[in-house]
């Protein structure tokens, strides 16, 4: 029997009856060779029945298997869903943990803000009390401070103990000590304000510490979250099949951090942080406000306190707003927590449904086992049938023949049986495959079950871990809360202590305030009286000052009077001393600026004077002030008259028989000629001296008969020229007389008796000088001009004779050759001038240092002036200077030379008096001379005077001794 002719196909059959209907279940269908589905067309009845039964069973089992496969698939899906829910649950758990962390942070912040608020409220209360007390005291004004002030008070808020001693109230001091009490009260007030500042600083530092603690808590939370993440990652590695778990957990954590809820939380935290920062800023501004320098004024302090109160009010409002905001956030988080709890409950439900599924699975497993059993039974039945068939063949071989016949007859049936056999074999193979598949499925189910168990264990572990973490978290939170509570309690205690101190301070401040107020009232009263006092004091002071100024003015005037008197006295004594010593007196005359001085910086004035001392002159030389001291200094405003007043006594002394020499020294253009001769309308010393001599001799005419003779000569290029001689080529020389003294042989001497005579003589001299030169001005600058006046007096009673000589010398310009830039004739002139002037300097130097040999003979000038410079004569030098910058160096040279000359001591001058038996001169009417007309004497001859006269008169130019004088009328007269 061959079953190879059976064929199989897949189709859709009814699971209950095996009919080929569209039931939606895919089953294995055995097709008949004819293509119809159903019973075999030709088979033995038993076999066919069995076969159909087997086929039906097979169909049923296929259906069951398919159902099982579908169920397994559903279970797998459910398992996946469960895992996903489990992960979601875990994520929500973590979210809850994070939420709790945030909640704890928020509660910490709340605690912090509450503590801050408490601190600020304490401060506000303190300030309000202070302000109220100050206001109250200000309005009452008469509160006895001793009734409110405690005698014990802490000096410092931070370090001092509340029981430390404090200085007693100023009100306890006696009223006489009001001023010191006020000062002490003010200083204590300042000290108290300083204490307040210190407390504020401390509070700010406490706030900073609390902020630091908060930061530490946040850091710890971050670390814990990171540790949780790490443990989750490890578990993720461990259970790689939960690929989505880690992802979901991380996603959950990420969502917690960055999700909408987390973002809200972060935003809220940021807001709280910002609020906190703002509060810190306000506290610091409050601190700055406190640390501002306190004003001494009470009203200013009260204003500060009011400002502080306003700011505290604002802070209070802001804190309330922050609290309301935090309340809202707490409500929101409560809702979130309830939502998560609901999700957790759902997950629990699903877990219980999962256990139902497990029961179903076990039922299915039992069914599968039953199906296997049935399969084995069916196989057994098949084997039995085959055995029966074999037995049947052995029992009846005809049957076999019949069968063979039948087979032959129905070859188709055989083929069909073969096909069926094949089909059965295929079906068995297929069954084996199915069994194998079922076994695989079972393995897979077992594997999945293992996984489920592992997942459950992991979940349990995770839950335990989470619980542990939450426990730890709760413990740490409780510890932190306990720490913060302890800290807050400590702060509270400190604040209470501070409050107590503040109260004490306030009490003390109140008492201080009374003292300050009393002081203020006193000061106000004094301030009101101050203008009157100031006015009275000012009036008194003005009166005193006026009287003092008046006294000082009077005293000053008397001092000035005394000073001038003293100055006159000093001058007198000085003159006497000078006379005694025989010093050469030196005057200085500064001419006014003239157009030749030019303009610009060169014309700047360099000469200044001392208003109190007419003997000092200052020269500004290259930025340096040089001082020169003279017997008298004439400024540019000094007149010819003033100058002559100073020299008139000297001039008239020649009437008494003294030799007098006045010479002007200075650079060209410094005013020598102006001083000695003067312009026509403002005569100089020469004219005035002769006029004075005429006046004086006339005044003495009753007792004395005087004769005045004059000679005029010049020294030009070391040549003496007689300016009263018509002979210009007549060169004179100085000769020493045998009996001593000097004379100029051939010098014309003219006796003058009136101003008119003098004018004539001077005119002639000028004329002769002008005819000798082409340029009068230049010539005059380069020659020394001498006017020699001899006054001879005879006493009408005693016949005593006096011989006085007055030499008036206008020296040549003293400027240096190098500066003048002269050459040729000019150079020779300049050299000669320089020679004579330097010889004059040498003589002066020799006289100063009192040398034995005085080099008079080195120049005509010094030789001629030997009597005036070397012995018993009165000598005056007038140093002429220009006042401008241009001439400053020459001015300094001239003044230095004058200083040197001033120190020369010639010895006391002596009068030239000659006593003897002379012919008496008849008395003549006053103001007249015995020579009514100008008498020009001839060239002088060696003196024929008596020995006595000769011994006293050494210099005899224009000898006029009556004894040997040859009087003649001038040709011009
Ligand atoms: N005190 C004075 N008041 C007014 N003018 C003055 C005075 N002194 C000098 N002068 C004027 O200064 C100019 C020069 O004076 P002065 O000729 O006398 O100088 P000097 O020294 O004699 O010169 P030189 O050496 O060339 O003779 C003249 O024009 C003169 O008028």
Automatic annotation (TrEMBL):
Residues 84-106, 130-186, 238-261, 916-973 are annotated as: Disordered. GO terms for molecular function: ATP binding; microtubule binding; microtubule motor activity. Keywords: ATP-binding, Cell junction, Coiled coil, Cytoplasm, Cytoplasmic vesicle, Cytoskeleton, Membrane, Microtubule, Motor protein, Nucleotide-binding, Phosphoprotein. It is a peripheral membrane protein. ATP binds at residues 666-673. It comes from the Eukaryota. Residues 193-220, 262-325, 438-487 form a coiled coil. One of its GO terms (cellular component) is microtubule. The keyword Nucleotide-binding applies. It is found in: Cell junction, Adherens junction; Cytoplasm, Cytoskeleton, Microtubule organizing center, Centrosome; Cytoplasmic vesicle membrane. One of its GO terms (biological process) is microtubule-based movement. Belongs to the TRAFAC class myosin-kinesin ATPase superfamily. Kinesin family. Minus-end microtubule-dependent motor protein. Involved in apically targeted transport. Required for zonula adherens maintenance. This is Kinesin-like protein. It comes from Littorina saxatilis. The lineage of its organism: Eukaryota, Metazoa, Spiralia, Lophotrochozoa, Mollusca.
């Amino acid at each position: 029997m061959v079953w190879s002719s059976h064929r199989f196909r897949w189709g859709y059959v009814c699971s209950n009856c095996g009919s080929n209907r569209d039931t939606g279940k895919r089953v294995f269908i055995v097709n008949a060779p004819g293509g119809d589905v159903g019973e075999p067309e030709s088979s033995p009845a038993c076999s066919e029945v069995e076969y159909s039964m087997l086929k039906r069973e097979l169909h049923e089992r296929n259906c069951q298997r398919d159902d099982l496969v579908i169920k397994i698939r559903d279970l797998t899906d459910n398992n996946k869903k469960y895992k996903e829910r489990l992960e979601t649950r875990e994520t929500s758990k973590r979210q809850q943990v994070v939420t709790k962390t945030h909640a704890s942070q928020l509660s910490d912040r709340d605690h912090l803000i509450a503590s801050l608020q408490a601190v600020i409220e304490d401060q506000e209360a303190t300030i309000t009390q202070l302000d109220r007390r100050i206001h109250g005291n200000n309005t009452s004004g008469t509160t006895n401070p001793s009734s409110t002030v405690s005698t014990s008070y802490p000096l410092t808020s931070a370090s001092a103990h509340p029981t430390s001693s404090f200085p007693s109230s100023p009100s306890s001091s006696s009223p006489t000590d009001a001023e010191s009490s006020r000062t002490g009260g003010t200083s204590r007030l300042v000290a108290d304000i300083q204490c307040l500042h210190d407390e504020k600083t401390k509070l700010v530092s406490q706030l900073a510490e609390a902020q630091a603690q908060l930061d530490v808590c946040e850091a710890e939370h971050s670390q814990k979250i990171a540790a949780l993440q790490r443990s989750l990652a490890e578990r993720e590695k461990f259970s790689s099949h939960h690929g989505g778990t880690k992802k979901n957990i991380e996603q959950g954590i990420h969502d917690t951090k960055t999700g909408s809820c987390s973002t809200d939380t972060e935003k809220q935290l940021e807001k709280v942080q910002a609020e906190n920062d703002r509060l810190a800023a306000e506290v610091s501004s409050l601190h700055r406000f406190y640390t501002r320098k306190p004003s001494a004024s009470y009203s200013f302090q009260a204003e500060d306190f009011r400002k502080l109160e306003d700011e505290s009010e604002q802070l209070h409002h802001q804190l309330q707003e922050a609290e309301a905001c935090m309340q809202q956030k707490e409500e929101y988080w409560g809702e979130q927590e309830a939502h998560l709890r609901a999700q957790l409950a759902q997950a629990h439900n699903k877990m219980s449904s999962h256990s139902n599924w497990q029961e179903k699975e076990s039922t299915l497993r039992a069914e599968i086992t039953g199906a296997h059993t049935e399969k084995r039974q069916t196989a057994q039945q098949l084997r039995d049938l085959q055995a029966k068939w074999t037995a049947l063949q052995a029992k009846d071989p005809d049957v076999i023949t019949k069968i063979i016949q039948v087979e032959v007859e129905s070859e188709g049936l055989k083929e069909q049986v073969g096909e069926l056999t094949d089909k059965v074999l295929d079906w068995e193979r297929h069954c084996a495959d199915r069994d194998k598949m079922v076994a695989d499925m079972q393995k897979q189910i077992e594997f999945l079950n293992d996984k489920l168990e592992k997942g459950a264990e992991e979940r349990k572990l995770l839950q335990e871990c989470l619980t542990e973490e939450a426990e730890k978290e709760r413990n740490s939170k409780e510890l932190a809360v306990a720490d913060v509570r302890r800290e807050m309690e400590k702060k509270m205690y400190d604040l209470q202590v501070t409050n107590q101190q503040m109260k004490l301070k306030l009490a003390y401040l109140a008492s201080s305030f009374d003292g300050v107020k009393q002081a203020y009232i006193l000061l106000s009263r004094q301030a009101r009286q101050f203008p009157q006092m100031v006015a009275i004091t000012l009036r008194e002071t003005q009166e005193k000052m006026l009287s003092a100024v008046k006294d000082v003015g009077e005293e000053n005037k008397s001092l000035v009077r005394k000073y001038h008197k003293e100055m006159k006295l000093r001058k007198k004594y000085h003159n006497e001393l000078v006379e005694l010593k025989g010093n050469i007196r030196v005057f200085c005359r500064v001419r006014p600026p003239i157009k030749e001085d030019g303009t610009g910086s060169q014309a700047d004035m360099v000469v200044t004077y001392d208003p109190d001392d007419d003997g000092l002159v200052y020269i500004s030389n290259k930025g340096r002030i040089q001082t020169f001291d003279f017997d008298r200094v004439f400024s540019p405003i000094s007149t010819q008259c003033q100058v002559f007043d100073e020299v008139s006594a000297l001039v008239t002394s020649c009437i008494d028989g003294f030799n007098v020499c006045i010479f002007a020294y200075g650079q060209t253009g410094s005013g020598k000629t102006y001083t000695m001769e003067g312009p026509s309308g403002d005569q100089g010393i020469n004219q005035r001296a002769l006029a004075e001599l005429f006046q004086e001799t006339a005044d003495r005419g009753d007792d004395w008969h005087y004769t005045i003779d004059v000679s005029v000569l010049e020294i030009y290029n070391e040549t003496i020229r007689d300016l009263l001689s018509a002979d210009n080529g007549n060169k004179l020389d100085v000769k020493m007389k045998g009996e001593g003294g000097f004379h100029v042989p051939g010098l014309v001497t003219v006796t003058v008796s009136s101003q008119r005579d003098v004018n004539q003589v001077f005119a002639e001299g000028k004329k002769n000088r002008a005819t000798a030169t082409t340029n009068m001005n230049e010539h005059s600058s380069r020659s020394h001009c001498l006017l020699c006046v001899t006054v001879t007096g005879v006493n009408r009673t005693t016949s005593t004779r006096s011989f006085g000589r007055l030499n008036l010398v206008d020296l040549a310009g003293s400027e240096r050759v190098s500066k003048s830039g002269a050459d040729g004739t000019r150079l020779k002139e300049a050299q000669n001038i320089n020679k004579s002037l330097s010889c004059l300097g040498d003589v002066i130097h020799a006289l100063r240092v009192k040398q034995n040999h005085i080099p008079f003979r080195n120049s005509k000038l010094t030789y001629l002036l030997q009597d005036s410079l070397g012995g018993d004569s009165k000598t005056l030098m007038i140093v002429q200077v220009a006042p401008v910058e241009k001439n400053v160096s020459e001015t300094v040279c001239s003044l230095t030379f004058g200083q040197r000359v001033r120190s020369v001591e010639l010895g006391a001058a002596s009068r030239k008096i000659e006593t003897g038996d002379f012919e008496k001169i008849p008395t003549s009417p006053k103001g007249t001379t015995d020579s009514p007309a100008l008498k020009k004497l001839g060239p002088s001859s060696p003196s024929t005077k008596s020995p006595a006269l000769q011994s006293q008169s050494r210099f005899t130019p224009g000898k006029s001794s009556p004894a040997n004088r040859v009087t003649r009328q001038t040709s011009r007269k």
